[in-house]
Amino acid sequence: MPNDLDKFHARFAEDAALSPEDELARMAAAEDEAKSKKDKKKDKGKKKKKKGKGADADGGEDKVAKIGPNELVRKFDSFYDDYNNKWANRDEVQNHD
Question: Using one digit for the tens of pLDDT, what is the confidence trace for 36-54?
């Protein structure tokens, strides 16, 4: 058992009620802080967008778009073909329950 429980009990402590003027000031400060964070995010987004534009950003190389199924899909297609050729058309009348 811990010796010092002040931090544990301090989390339940309630703050004293603020005057209406203090409450308005606190709300205005919170709004300003939220607005500044939002502006910083916008600035970061603009910088990232500017950084990637132009042929110099990708080294002047053309990007190749991969079209078609990937290796895993081709492997499953071969499994489906194998099943359809070997097992799907078998006559199971002779099998017992």
Answer: 888 887 777 666 665 555 5
Q: Which two tokens stand for residue 12?
A: 């339940």
Residue type, 78: S
Q: What is the pTM of this model?
A: 0.31
Q: How far apart are CA 61 and CA 55, in angstroms?
A: 8
Return d(Cα 93, Cα 97) in angstroms, integer.
10
pLDDT in tens, 7-33: 888 877 777 777 888 888 888 999 999
CB 57 within 8 A of CB 51: yes
The residue assigned the tokens 């919170």 is 30
Residue with tokens 């967008």: 49
Cβ atoms 69, 77 nearer than 8 A: yes
Domain ranges of the chain: 19-48
